[in-house]
Design a protein that fits this description.
heterodimer; A: alpha/beta; TIM Barrel; glyoxalase-related enzyme like fold; 6-stranded mixed beta sheet; 5-stranded mixed beta sheet; 44 helices; globular; B: alpha+beta; Dna Ligase, domain 1; 2 domains; 4-stranded antiparallel beta sheet; about 45% helix
C-alpha cells in the first residue's frame, strides 16, 4: 500500500496529482478498482485524482462516489486512442468544466461509432474546455495550435526514463508547448505488473510469454507517490507543478442527483397529465365494459383518480405515456405484450393496456409500484416475443430520437470460472486440464472459497488447489475475479432521456447493434434517467408461433384475445396433473410437482405457487406451510388480527412483497416510503448496503406504539427477514401465472403446434432432447427432418411433429435457404446440383434421414455422395457406371440411427435414447428386476431398480448442516421420475452422476409426498458404453447458430 | 518362393519389463506414465486397462479411473535393454528383422524353414527362447504378408500364435472388425461404418474400382488388403536408425518465447555438432513442438544449401518455431531433425570466393568448439547460445 509518509517527508508532495490513471474499467489493462485508486490518492495526500480509462468513461459514477468517500476531488477524463496510418496514437483528455466533460463524452462516442475515426482531426477540433496531454512527437506537432495542449512526461525514476523526459522536453520546447508530469498509471504497486501482463494476455488473446510488442504497459507504470515524483523532478519542478495547476483547474459538477424525466411528444398546448388522464379513463371504460357493476366502476374511478394524482405529482405522466405508446404500437402490429413486475399493481397500467389483469379484482397494492414517498423511479417491464422485440426497439429509437434513446450497457465481468479459464489461457495451461479443473467447480462458487469448496462439495472433492500450476492460477484469478472484461448490451434495459445522452454518458455500439450507455443500469438510474425494460421473452414467442401455426393449419383465425384461458376445464386438468413441460414458468420439475401436489387449477393458487417456489419463501418453510394449509392438512395458526388480515389470502403465510409493505404499515405504522425502503432492503436490488437489522428497531418501536407486543412484532419481523431474497411481488407472479395459463391452454388444445413452437424457440428449462421426449409421451408422431417436407422451423399439425431444418447441426443458413427455395428435389444428384451445400452438410442430412425421401438407405446415399463428390467434373456416363457398382446395403440399425440423430440433431427422433443400449439394459434386466417410471406409484415405500436418462439436475444444500445434495430428473421410455440424492449418497456418486447423460441404473426407495412420488436414491451407476456428458443449450455453438432463425 | 512373415508382439511389454525388475508388481494394476499430474500414460497393464485406463490419457484421469493402480515412471534404459534381448532372439531365426517399436516387429522367415523347420516351429522356438531369456511372453502372427501377420498377432493376443495358411487370408480376415485392420486409421472407421463396412469382409462386397474411385490408391490398397494381399517388404533395422534427431523435454512446461528460443539454439548446436561429427549436411530440417496437452505441431523447411552450420540451423528452426508456436498452451518438448542428410563433399574449390573463405573459418571455429564440447562436461562447454539469437534478431 502507498505510504503517506513520503508526502509528509517532502512537505510538497501534495502539489503533484496523477493525471493519467487507469482503473480496471480500462478493460483488461488496469489492475485496480476506482475505490483502491481513490484510497491510494487520499493516503498520499493528493487533493485530486484523474481517471482516464482507455476510450471509456465507464467508472464516472463509482469514481465520484469513491472520491467523495475519501475526500479526493475527481477529475474526469479519458485516454483517447486512434491510428494515424500505421502509427498507434493516444492522448489523455481532461475536462476543465461541464462543457469539457460533454465534449470528451462525445469524442469517446465518436471513437466507438465512427469506423473511419480520424484521430488527428478529432483532436484538432477540441475546445479550450479540455486539457490534452500527449507524448507522441508527431501528435504534438499536429496539435500545437490547441490552447490547452501539454507534453506529458513520464514520472518514473531511472536513466531510461530521464532520457525519455529529456527528449520530450526538448521537443516540447522547440514546439513551444508546456510540459506536464503525467505518466500512465495502470497498477498500484510494482509487483502487480504480472497481473497487468496476465490481463493484457487475456485482452490480446496471447500468453504472458508471447505478448505483442507494446501491448502491455511498462514495468514502472505504477502509482508513484507524489514524493518520489517530486524527487524525479527535483530542481526543475515545472512539469510537476503544472500537473497540480491543471488538477486545480479541472472542476466539473455532473449534478448526478437531478431527475432527468423524459417527456412525451405532444401537440403544442397539450399537457402530459391531462392527456394521460384522458387516455387512462377511456382505457378503463373499455376494459371494464358496460356490464360491470356500478359499485366496482365507482371503486375503480376513485382508485384511478388517486393513482393519476400520484403520477402527476411525481411528474411521471410522460413516462407512462411513453410506455402506453410502445404497447399501443405493438398492438397495432399484432404483437403480443405482457406488462409484468410491480406495474401490475397499478390500475392506470391496466387501463393503458400495459398490464392485463385488473388489480382491483386480485387485491393488488398500488403503493408497491408507486407511492408519494418513494424516492426511486418505478420501472416498467414490458415483455414481447423474442423476434418482436427488435421491431419494438426500432420503433422506440425512431420515435424518440437516436440521440435520446439507448440500450443500457452492462459489464460482462470475469466471474469465478471465467477468471480461472482466462488466466489459465494466459498462463498457457492446456484447455483440457483447465476444463477438468473447472467442471468440478459449481457455477455459484466464489474463487475465494475454493479451498473450502474442495473440502465440502462432492463434485469439487480433490480439487488440486495447493498444487502448481493451479495455485498460481487461483491466486491470479482471485485477483482479477469480478473485473469487467467487456461491455455488452443489457438484455432488456432501455433509457429514454430528455436531452442528448452523450452529454453525460458516451454511447458506443453494443454487441446487438444498438447504441448502449457506457454506464451500467445502476449508474444510469442513479443519474436520474428513466429505464424501461423491453424484454424478449420465449414464452410469448412460443404462444405466438403456436397460434400462427394453428391458424394456418385450420385455415381460420382463432382470435386468441377472446379465449377464456382461465376457465378452460381441459387446461385446468393439465395443470392439476403437473404435465406442463414446455409451458411458460411452470415447467421445472419442482413446479410441476408442486402443482400436482396442490391440485392447482386456479389463477390465484397458481399466482401463489409461482411465488412460493422462490428461495425467499421456501427458505423459511413457507412453501410447505402454504401447501399443507391450502390442502386442509394443517390449521392456520392463531395470529394477531392485524397480521391475520394482511395474510388472509395466503393462509397466514408471507409470500408476496406487497404483504411486507402492508405488514410494515399495519403492524409498525411505517409510512409507505419507509415500508418500501424495508422491501427494497430485502430485495437483491439493495445496493446501498442497508441491512435488515437497521429496520428492526424502527419496526418494533412502531409496533409498540400500536399496542402490538414485542414478541408478536419480533416474530413478524423475523418472518420478513427470513423472506429476504428473491421473492416476487404479487403483481409479477400474477403476470406470469396469466401467461402460464395461456401457454398451458395452447399445450392442451394444440399440442403438436405448441411443442413445435417450444422446440423452434430453443426450449426453456430443458434441452431439446427432453422436449422431444415429452412430445413422444404426449402421443405425437415424431417425424425426422426431410429436405422436401420440413420447414426451416419445427412444425406441428394434428398429431404430427416434423423436425425443422434448423435443428440440423452444421447446416448453414445459406444451404437452408437454398433447400427451401429450390425444392422439391428428385434425387441426390439433383439436390447436389441445386444446393451449394458442402460435403459435410450433405453427410449430416443423410445421417439424420433428411434425404431418405430419395429412396435408398443411408449407407447407399453415402456411397452415392462419395461417388458424386469424387467425380467432380467427370463425364456423366462414367459416374453413372461407377454408381452402378454400389450394391444394395441395409440401412443403419436402430442404435446407429439414434446415434446419428443424436450426433446431427442433438436428439433422438426414432426412439428414446435408452433404446440405444438395449443390450446392456437386457443384461441388467437379467440380473435385477427393473421398474418402469410409470409404475412407481405402485411401489410406494419399496426398494426399486430403475434405468434412466439424465434430464436435468439441481443441486441444493441441506438446511441443517448446509451439505450439498441434488435432485435429478431421469426419463425412461415410459415417463420421467425424480431421484433425490441426499448428501451421503451424493458425495459417493457425484462423479459417476455427471460422467454422461446415461444410461443410469438407479437403485433407491420410492417415497410419496402429497401424491407426488420420487425415488430416494441409494446408488447409481452408469451402464453400457457412455457418451460424453450432455450437450448444453448454452454452450453448443450449433445451437447458438440456430437462434438466428 | 512362398513368403513367410512373422509378426512378433510382446504382451504387455512395459508392465512385464517392470515386473521383471520387481516381481512384487506381478498381477497388480500397473500404469507406466510420466510424473503426475501432467504426465501422460505411456502404457497400462491388462489389469489397469480393465479399469478403463488407456495410453495417452493424463495421469490424473488414470488415477481417477484406477485409484488402486501403481503408477511408475518409464525406465527407458530397462525397456531398451529388454527390447534388444527380444530382437536378438528373433534375429537368430531370421536374417531380416524389422523392429517397428520397442515391443513389436516383423521377421522375414522366407526360405528359413530349411534351417529352423516350419514357421510354426520357429515361432514356438522364438516364444520359448524369449520366455527363457527375458521372462516375457510374445504373441506371434505368421502369414504370407506383413499386413496379415500383423492382424494375426493381434488375434493371437496373450501369448498365443496364429498361423494363417496361404490362400486362406481373406477367410481369416473376413470377420475381423474394420477398426482392427492396420490399414484403417481411427479417422476412417466412422466413415467406413457409415458406408456399411464394419468388418474387413464387408470391404469385399464392394467393387475395387468403386473403392479406388472414391478413395484413390488407399481404397485400392484396402481392397487388396482385405483379400490378404500386401507386397510390403520387411526392412531390416530399428526405428531411428541413421536419423539425426535432437530433442529437448523441458524441465517444466514453458510459454515464454525467449526461454523457448534459448532451448532451440541449444538444439541447433547439438544437431550441428552431430552432423559435423558424421561429416554430414542437412538438406532440410524438421522442427516439432509438443505442447503440454500432447498436441504436436511440426514443420519442415529447406535451407538455401545443405548445411551443418549452427547459425543456419538455428535460423531455420527459429523460423519454423515462429510459424508453429501459435497456440495459447505451454510447450513441453521441442525436437529438431535433419532430413535429406548427405555426406559433406570432400573436394574443396581450388579458388574459393570470399564467402566460402568465411564459411571455412566459421567451420574451423565450430570444429574447435565441437572438440571442446566433447572434451568438457555438459553445461560447461562453450556455446554460441544467445549470440545466435542476437544475430538472428539483428538480421531480421
Amino acid at each position: 500500500m502507498i505510504r503517506p509518509a513520503s508526502s509528509a517527508r517532502t512537505g510538497r508532495a501534495h502539489l503533484f496529482t496523477h493525471l493519467h490513471v487507469h482503473a480496471n474499467f480500462s478493460m483488461l489493462a488496469g489492475t485496480r478498482t476506482v475505490e483502491d485508486l481513490a484510497a491510494a490518492a487520499a493516503a498520499c495526500g493528493m487533493e485530486a485524482l484523474a481517471l482516464t480509462d482507455t476510450d471509456a468513461m465507464h467508472a464516472v459514477v463509482p469514481f465520484t462516489e469513491a472520491c467523495a468517500e475519501t475526500g479526493v476531488r475527481p477529475i474526469y477524463g479519458a485516454e483517447l486512442t486512434g491510428e494515424d496510418g500505421p502509427t498507434f496514437l493516444r492522448a489523455v483528455l481532461l475536462a476543465r468544466n461541464r462543457a469539457g466533460y460533454s465534449e470528451i463524452s462525445r469524442l469517446v462516442t465518436r471513437r466507438h461509432l465512427e469506423g473511419d475515426f480520424d484521430f488527428g482531426e478529432a483532436l484538432a477540433g477540441v475546445s479550450e474546455n479540455i486539457y490534452v496531454l500527449v507524448s507522441h512527437r508527431l501528435l504534438l506537432t499536429r496539435l500545437r495550435h490547441l490552447p490547452n495542449l501539454r507534453t506529458a512526461l513520464p514520472v518514473a525514476p531511472g536513466r531510461d526514463r530521464d532520457r525519455e523526459r529529456w527528449r520530450l522536453a526538448d521537443a516540447a520546447q522547440r514546439l513551444g508547448i508546456e510540459t506536464v508530469a503525467a505518466g500512465g498509471v495502470y497498477f498500484l504497486e510494482p509487483k502487480e505488473h504480472f497481473v497487468h501482463r496476465v490481463l493484457t494476455a487475456v485482452r490480446t488473446r496471447t500468453t504472458i510469454g508471447t505478448l505483442p510488442h507494446g501491448a502491455a504497459a511498462v514495468r514502472d507504470a505504477f502509482f508513484h507517490t507524489p514524493g518520489s515524483v517530486m524527487k524525479v523532478f527535483e530542481g526543475r519542478e515545472g512539469p510537476a507543478l503544472e500537473a497540480a495547476r491543471i488538477a486545480a483547474d479541472c472542476r466539473v459538477d455532473l449534478d448526478l442527483g437531478r431527475r432527468r424525466l423524459p417527456g412525451f411528444p405532444l401537440p403544442p398546448g397539450e399537457d402530459a397529465s391531462a392527456t394521460l388522464r384522458r387516455i387512462a379513463l377511456r382505457g378503463l371504460r373499455e376494459r371494464m365494459g358496460d356490464a360491470c357493476p356500478y359499485v366496482e366502476k365507482r371503486e375503480a374511478m376513485e382508485k384511478i383518480d388517486h393513482e393519476l394524482s400520484v403520477i402527476e405529482e411525481k411528474g411521471l405522466a410522460g413516462y407512462f405515456l411513453i410506455c402506453w405508446d410502445i404497447v399501443r404500437f405493438a398492438r397495432s402490429r399484432g404483437i403480443r405484450t405482457l406488462g409484468r413486475g410491480s406495474a401490475g399493481n397499478s390500475l392506470v397500467s391496466y387501463a393503458l393496456g400495459i398490464t392485463h389483469f385488473n388489480p382491483l379484482r386480485h387485491n393488488m397494492f398500488f403503493e408497491r409500484f408507486l407511492n408519494p414517498e418513494r424516492e426511486h423511479l418505478p420501472d416498467f417491464d414490458l415483455d414481447f416475443g423474442t423476434d418482436d422485440r427488435e421491431v419494438i426497439l426500432k420503433y422506440i429509437f425512431r420515435r424518440y430520437g437516436k440521440d435520446r434513446v439507448a440500450m443500457i450497457g452492462t459489464f460482462s465481468t470475469l466471474r469465478a470460472r471465467a477468471a480461472l479459464r482466462e488466466t489459465a489461457k494466459a498462463l498457457g495451461i492446456p484447455e483440457g486440464e483447465i476444463r477438468q479443473f473447472i467442471r468440478t467447480i459449481p457455477f455459484y462458487a466464489s474463487i475465494d472459497r475454493l479451498d473450502h469448496l474442495a473440502k465440502v462439495s462432492p463434485r469439487a472433492a480433490g480439487l488440486p488447489v495447493d498444487r502448481e500450476p493451479f495455485r498460481t492460477l487461483i491466486s491470479i484469478a482471485r485477483r482479477i475475479g469480478g473485473f469487467p472484461r467487456h461491455m455488452a448490451t443489457h438484455p432488456c434495459g432501455l433509457v429514454v432521456s430528455p436531452e442528448p445522452i452523450t452529454d453525460l454518458i458516451p454511447m458506443p455500439r453494443g454487441d446487438k447493434g444498438y447504441e448502449i450507455t457506457q454506464w451500467s443500469m445502476y449508474e444510469v438510474e442513479g443519474a436520474g434517467l428513466v429505464k424501461i425494460d423491453i424484454i424478449g421473452q420465449k414464452g410469448l414467442a412460443v404462444i405466438g408461433e403456436a397460434c400462427e401455426m394453428a391458424e394456418e393449419n385450420e385455415g381460420r383465425p382463432l382470435h386468441p384475445g377472446r379465449i377464456d384461458y382461465l376457465g378452460d376445464e381441459k387446461t385446468k386438468k393439465l395443470l392439476r396433473t403437473g404435465r406442463t413441460e414446455g409451458c411458460f414458468y411452470i415447467e421445472s420439475p419442482i413446479m410441476m410437482q408442486l402443482m400436482s401436489q396442490a391440485r392447482c387449477d386456479d389463477f390465484e393458487v397458481l399466482t401463489a405457487l409461482s411465488s412460493i417456489i422462490r428461495p425467499g419463501v421456501s427458505s423459511h418453510g413457507g412453501k410447505r406451510s402454504y401447501l399443507h394449509r391450502a390442502l386442509g392438512l394443517e390449521e392456520v395458526p392463531a395470529m394477531h388480527p392485524v397480521v391475520a388480515e394482511v395474510l388472509r389470502d395466503t393462509y397466514g403465510c408471507l409470500i408476496y412483497q406487497e404483504q411486507v409493505i402492508r405488514l410494515a404499515v399495519a403492524v409498525a405504522g411505517m409510512s409507505y416510503g419507509e415500508a418500501d425502503g424495508l422491501r427494497r432492503c430485502m430485495s437483491f436490488k439493495n445496493i446501498a448496503g442497508e441491512t435488515m437489522e437497521s429496520y428492526r428497531e424502527a419496526f418494533l418501536f412502531g409496533a409498540r406504539g400500536r399496542g402490538i407486543s414485542d414478541e408478536t412484532a419480533g416474530e413478524v419481523f423475523r418472518q420478513i427477514a427470513a423472506f429476504a431474497g428473491y421473492a416476487f411481488c404479487k403483481a409479477h407472479s400474477a403476470s406470469f401465472a396469466l401467461e402460464s395459463f395461456e401457454s398451458a391452454w395452447w399445450k392442451t388444445h394444440y399440442p403438436a403446434e405448441f411443442m413445435a413452437a417450444v422446440l423452434s424457440n430453443g426450449g426453456g428449462y430443458y434441452g431439446y432432447e427432453e422436449y422431444l421426449e415429452e412430445a413422444r409421451r404426449m402421443g405425437l408422431e415424431l417425424l425426422p427432418p426431410c429436405v422436401n417436407r420440413s420447414l426451416v422451423r419445427h412444425h406441428g399439425r394434428g398429431r404430427e411433429l416434423r423436425v425443422g431444418l434448423m435443428q440440423i447441426k452444421g447446416l448453414t443458413s445459406a444451404s437452408i435457404e437454398a433447400i427451401v427455395g429450390q425444392r422439391p428435389f428428385a434425387s441426390l444428384p439433383d439436390f447436389i446440383e441445386r444446393v451449394p451445400a458442402s460435403q459435410s452438410e450433405v453427410e449430416a442430412l443423410i445421417r439424420c434421414g433428411a434425404l431418405s425421401c430419395f429412396g435408398g438407405t443411408r449407407p447407399e446415399l453415402m456411397w452415392e455422395l462419395r461417388v458424386l463428390k469424387a467425380a467432380g467434373d467427370e463425364v456423366e456416363a462414367d459416374v453413372t457406371t461407377v454408381l452402378g457398382l454400389v450394391p444394395g446395403i441395409p440401412d443403419f440399425d436402430l442404435r446407429a440411427q439414434l446415434e446419428a440423430e443424436r450426433d446431427t440433431l442433438d436428439m433422438c427422433v426414432a426412439a428414446h435414447p435408452l433404446t440405444m443400449f438395449e443390450e446392456a439394459l437386457g443384461e441388467l434386466a437379467g440380473r435385477v428386476r427393473l421398474t418402469s417410471s410409470a409404475d412407481l406409484n405402485d411401489h410406494d415405500g419399496s426398494e426399486v431398480d430403475l434405468v434412466g436418462w439424465r434430464v436435468t439436475a439441481k443441486a441444493t444444500r441441506t438446511s441443517d448442516k448446509g451439505e450439498e445434495m441434488i435432485f435429478v430428473t431421469f426419463s425412461d421410455t415410459r415417463g420421467r421420475f425424480e431421484a433425490i440424492f441426499f448428501p451421503g449418497v451424493y458425495r459417493r456418486v457425484a462423479r459417476e452422476l455427471f460422467r454422461a447423460r446415461g444410461p443410469y441404473h438407479i437403485r433407491g426407495r420410492v417415497e410419496s409426498d402429497l401424491g407426488a412420488v420420487s425415488v430416494v436414491a441409494r446408488d447409481v451407476e452408469l451402464i453400457g458404453e457412455t457418451f460424453e456428458s450432455g450437450l448444453s443449450l448454452k454452450t453448443n455453438p450449433a445451437i447458438q447458430q440456430r437462434k438466428q432463425y | 518362393m512362398k513368403r513367410e512373415i512373422l509378426h512378433v508382439n510382446t504382451d504387455d511389454f512395459y508392465a512385464s519389463a517392470l515386473r521383471l525388475r520387481d516381481p512384487a508388481l506381478r498381477s497388480k494394476a500397473l500404469v507406466v506414465a510420466g510424473p503426475a499430474p501432467r504426465g501422460m500414460v505411456i502404457s497400462a497393464s491388462y489389469e489397469a486397462r480393465g479399469d478403463g485406463v488407456c495410453r495417452g490419457m493424463t495421469v490424473s484421469s488414470a488415477m481417477r479411473l484406477c485409484p488402486g493402480g501403481i503408477f511408475i515412471p518409464p525406465d527407458w534404459d530397462l525397456f531398451r535393454s529388454v527390447s534388444t534381448s527380444i530382437f536378438s532372439v528373433i534375429g537368430r531365426y531370421s536374417p531380416v528383422v524389422e523392429a517397428v517399436s520397442l515391443d513389436e516387429g516383423y521377421a522375414d522367415y522366407t526360405g528359413c524353414d530349411r534351417l529352423f523347420g516350419h514357421a510354426l516351429d520357429a515361432g514356438r522356438a522364438i516364444k520359448r527362447d524369449v520366455r527363457a531369456e527375458t521372462g516375457l511372453d510374445v504373441s506371434l502372427g505368421i502369414a504370407s504378408s506383413k499386413l496379415v501377420s500383423h492382424v494375426a498377432s493381434r488375434e493371437a493376443k496373450r501369448a498365443h500364435m496364429v498361423d494363417v495358411y496361404p490362400g486362406c487370408e481373406r477367410y481369416f480376415l473376413s470377420p475381423v472388425p474394420i477398426s482392427r485392420f492396420p490399414i484403417v486409421s481411427e479417422r476412417h472407421v466412422p466413415v467406413l461404418r457409415e458406408l456399411g463396412i464394419t468388418t474387413v469382409g464387408d470391404v469385399l462386397r464392394f467393387d475395387e474400382e468403386l473403392l479406388a474411385f472414391c478413395f484413390g490408391s488407399w481404397g485400392r490398397r484396402l481392397h487388396l488388403g482385405a483379400k490378404g494381399m500386401d507386397a510390403a517388404k520387411v526392412r531390416a533395422g530399428r526405428p531411428g536408425d541413421g536419423e539425426f534427431v535432437v530433442k529437448k523435454v523441458l524441465e517444466s512446461d514453458a510459454v515464454d518465447r525467449r526461454l523457448l528460443e534459448s532451448y532451440i539454439y541449444v538444439l541447433a548446436e547439438e544437431l550441428g555438432g552431430r552432423l559435423r561429427a558424421e561429416r554430414s549436411l542437412a538438406g532440410s530440417l524438421r522442427f516439432e513442438l509438443r505442447y503440454a496437452d500432447e498436441v504436436t505441431a511440426h514443420g519442415q523447411m529447406r535451407p538455401a544449401a545443405p548445411t551443418s552450420d549452427d547459425a543456419i540451423l538455428f535460423d531455420s528452426a527459429g523460423m519454423l518455431f515462429d510459424r508453429l508456436f501459435g497456440r495459447r498452451v505451454r510447450v513441453r518438448a521441442l525436437s529438431l531433425a535433419a532430413l535429406s542428410v548427405e555426406p559433406e563433399p570432400l573436394q574443396l574449390d581450388l579458388f574459393p570466393d570470399p564467402a566460402q573463405k568465411t564459411a571455412r573459418k566459421v567451420r574451423r571455429v565450430q570444429s574447435a568448439l565441437d572438440r571442446l564440447r566433447t572434451a568438457m562436461p555438459a553445461g560447461v562447454a562453450p556455446s554460441f547460445g544467445r549470440a545466435l539469437a542476437a544475430r538472428r534478431n539483428a538480421a531480421s
